[in-house]
Design brief:
Elements lengths: L7 E5 L6 H16 L7 E5 L5 H8 L4 E5 L16 H7 L3 E4 L2 H6 L4 H13 L3 E6 L3 H5 L3 H12 L9 E5 L13 H18 L7 E5 L4 H8 L6 E4 L6 H9 L3
Parallel strand pairs: 1-2, 1-8, 2-3, 3-4, 4-5, 5-6, 6-7, 7-8
Helix pairs in contact: 1-2, 1-10, 5-7, 7-8, 9-10
Bound molecules: phosphoenolpyruvate.
Length: 252
């Protein structure tokens, strides 16, 4: 890795996973991590909400942390079908993703909503992983950096610090498509986010910036070596421990 920040390799299982098979995959991941003399990175799995409590119980005391994939901005109340940050914390989660592009698109989540969710996460004692990323149309029309700046400045929670905040840059067109930006493009966006953060946070240099979008074992080393890339947010390749572990190994 190009930086001294402790890397974070995060898996987003999305709407995948049933009890028994998921437990086997998590056990296998924990086993691989536990075989190391020391694990030089943080490892996170974000299962669907139905599995957070059971996966957190399995991972308790292991090098693997568990996170939610979304949370409501309120602590409790009349919000049928939603899960609060406090509930995730109570179920054993340490992190929560907010503003994933699938949430921004499928659930019409604005930057303001994402910010409110991130603030709820911090209030509950969770680390918020705030996701940002441009669409293909925005990239092709040369708007990438301005879109990212806008998302970062409007989605960041008040009270964000290097300890409770992670930012994931995920170009929407790279998620689940097998396409990735060039390392030069990733470097440009990450340097731009780091620069924006200087104006927004006191300890901007300590905030980990993840790259996400079609990361797999075969491209992870190259992506993880880019300046200001402090880890990865991985979808498809996080579902099986045997696919996820080689990504973790690139930063061990
Ligand atoms: C994601 O869901 O955040 C993601 C990056 O997915 P994938 O790795 O499958 O592109």
């Amino acid at each position: 890795m190009s930086s001294s920040l402790r890397p974070l390799i995060a898996g987003n299982w999305k709407m995948n996973g049933l009890k028994r098979e998921s437990a086997e995959e998590l056990k296998s991941l924990i086993h691989k991590a536990s075989e190391q003399n020391s694990v030089g990175c943080d490892i996170l799995i974000c299962p669907p909400a139905t599995l957070v409590a059971s996966m957190a119980e399995l991972a308790n005391g292991s090098p693997v942390s568990i996170g939610g994939q979304d949370c409501h901005a309120n602590e409790k109340g009349a919000h049928t079908g939603d899960t609060s940050a406090q509930m995730l914390k109570d179920a054993g989660a340490d992190y929560v993703l907010v503003g994933h592009s699938e949430r921004r698109t499928d659930h019409d989540e604005s930057n303001e909503k994402v910010k409110a969710k991130a603030e709820a996460a911090l209030k509950a004692g969770l680390i918020a992983v705030v996701c940002v990323g441009e669409t293909l149309q925005e990239r092709e029309s040369g708007q990438t950096l301005s879109v990212i700046s806008d998302q970062v400045s409007r989605s960041l929670p008040a009270g964000g610090t290097a300890e409770n905040l992670v930012i994931a840059y995920e170009p929407v067109w790279a998620i689940g498509t097998g396409k990735t930006p060039t390392v030069e493009d990733v470097a440009d966006v990450h340097a731009h986010i780091r620069n924006d953060l200087q104006a927004l946070l006191k300890d901007a240099d300590g905030v980990r910036l993840l790259y996400g979008g079609s990361v797999k074992g075969s491209n992870a080393a190259e992506l993880m070596n880019v300046a200001h890339v402090n880890g990865a947010l991985v979808g498809g390749a996080s579902l099986k421990a045997e696919d996820f572990w080689p990504i973790v190994e690139t930063v061990l």
